[in-house]
Specification:
By secondary structure, the protein is an all-beta fold. The protein has a domain of 62 residues. Helix content is 0%, strand content 44%. The strands form 3 sheets. Strands 3-4-5-6 form a 4-stranded antiparallel sheet, with no helix packed on it.
């Protein structure tokens, strides 16, 4: 499938340049999630209510981030962390494993996996 893209920019002399390109898209989307299986046909690892999950900080190996799952729905998990009593996090499936970012999304943020 070919997708036409039109965009403009201004060069260093202040002249507006219009680009029209066609991008050839091979695979536009990846099937993840709703059926409980990843692309390889393996079962997705999910967060379970009552379990505690941990990871280490990317900046300081001695900092351990924990999240206890209080409740979950199909797309969100409510967890208790060291910083907050109750935090609602969106679930992102990566390589067949559910993941959350309990401290928010920023560079070097801790990512907790259900594995």
């Amino acid at each position: 499938m070919t997708v036409p893209v039109l965009f403009t920019c201004v060069n260093h002399q202040g002249i507006k340049i219009i680009y029209f390109i066609c991008i050839f898209v091979v695979d536009m989307c990846i099937a993840i999630g709703d059926n409980g299986f990843n692309n390889n046909g393996e079962r997705t690892m999910k967060f379970e209510t009552g379990n505690t999950y941990t990871t280490r900080s990317a900046c300081d190996h001695n900092t351990i981030v924990t999240a206890e799952v209080l409740k979950r729905s199909a797309k969100f998990v409510t967890v208790k962390t060291q910083m907050e009593d109750s935090k609602r996090c969106g679930i992102l499936v990566i390589d067949g494993v559910e993941t959350i970012k309990p401290w928010g999304s920023f560079s070097m943020c801790p990512i907790i996996r259900a594995a």
